[in-house]
Amino acid sequence: MATTETLRSISVGLEAIDEKKAQLRRAFEELQAHSSLIPSSSSSTSSFTNLKWADIDSYFTSLQSGLQAKFALLKSAKPVPEGPQPPPQPESAANIKSGSATSEPLPPQPESKAKRKASLSVPEPVPSAGPVPVRPELKSFCEKMDSFGLRDFLLARPRERAVIRDELADAWKHARDPAMLVVDAMQGITGDGSSGGVADVTGLRRVSVALLEALMRAKVEIGAQVKEKAMAIAVEWNRNIAAGVSSEGDDDGLEKLCFLQLVATFGLVENDLFNMNDLVEYAVAIARHRQAVDLCRVIGFGDRICDVITKLISGGKILVAVKFIFQFEQTEKFPPVPLLRGCISETKKIGQKARRTGGRSGKNFRQSWVMLCFKCSSSLGDDGPKNNMLM
Asked: Is 94 contained in some domain?
């Protein structure tokens, strides 16, 4: 278990994340300012030029939320007292026999020494932290079926959403109909003007993703009435997305992520209400998000996952494509080694061209990109493009 000093150190590190993200954003914007040095002819190069800060921010925000959730679990465990603790004094045989305090204690037996040595050399297993205890507010919202209260509670706590999402697993037990609670909280999600009192539609969508994900994880029973209500929302929403009514400013694919999470959580794809070509496009748009692979599995893309991978490759999203290739076991159809080699070759050219103009940002970009490719290829065994990779 963690000591108080360890918890304090972790807390300081987590508090520094926002500052580090700000530094990363400045570096990214500097790279973007030198984008004219990057040739636009190859797909692997376009993976940089197509990259947006929203993609990077979404990735690191996901990591940050996960770390904060684990830290909350760690804090809930009983901390180990700091400093050495005095060992228990062995009770003498004389004291045991007669109760006299003047008797000399017997020397410890060899077995006792061995046991003490073993207890020092082998740490005791740390017990599991167990389910995250639910805070009273969440329990109250669920008991009262207060969907707007639950929604506003999450809207006001963007940095705690990952922790709250884990707490909801226990909170759902106090709700008469958890699925209906979530659907009602999503009022205004389609972006058609009926915001349900929420001006921040983007924030509402982030909250809805957390609620839907928690609902799907809990595997609660979904009744026919609430499923029909979710289906009506999804059909209208899909129509708005196709018409471009609600996708303005959706550069990071958040709207499509929330839509696919709704479809997956309520099993709406079974009714063949949606064109699979549209779902493929949505999957490509959200591919960089943490939930993308799981959503594609739950929805059941089948052979159409190859279309997703093909579009990722043609769009220059090589490393994301490689992730999908391995997750869906498509290495025979899409050999990852040539894809990674292409990334490395192009980044070498970019770095060399940037150095000739005197820019360090191009060199740093090349090193970072090549190291990322190296990490991907490390799982490929002897077939990976490791030889002379950094030359």
From this structure: no
Residue-wise pLDDT for 117-161, tens only, equals 333 333 333 444 455 678 999 999 999 999 999 999 999 999 899
How many domains are there within the chain? 2
Q: Which long-range contacts (CB under 8 A, 24 or more apart) does 40-45 make?
A: 42/342, 42/346, 43/313, 43/314, 43/315, 43/316, 43/318, 43/342, 44/316, 44/318, 44/339, 44/342, 44/343, 44/345, 44/346, 44/347, 45/316, 45/346, 45/350
Can you spell out the DSSP letters for 5-67?
Answer: HHHHHHHHHHHTHHHHHHHHHHHHHHHHHTGGGS--SSHHHHHHHT--HHHHHHHHHHHHHHH
Phi, psi values for residue 80, rounded to 5°:
-75, 130
Burial class of residue 246, CB neighbours in 10 A (0-12, 13-18, 19+)? buried
Over the stretch 228-271, which tens digit does the pLDDT of each residue have? 999 999 999 999 888 876 655 566 789 999 999 999 999 998 76
Q: Does residue 352 share a domain with residue 280?
A: no
Task: Judge if 161 and 195 occupy the same domain.
Answer: yes
How far apart CA 95 and CA 274 sit, in angstroms, is 82
Residue 299 and residue 179 share a domain: yes
- Is 282 domain-assigned? yes
Q: Work out whether the CA dihedral 157, 186, 52, 29 comes out positive or negative.
A: negative
Claim to verify: residue 150 and residue 229 sit in the same structural domain: yes
List, as one string, the DSSP characters of 174-191: G-S-HHHHHHHHTTTTT-
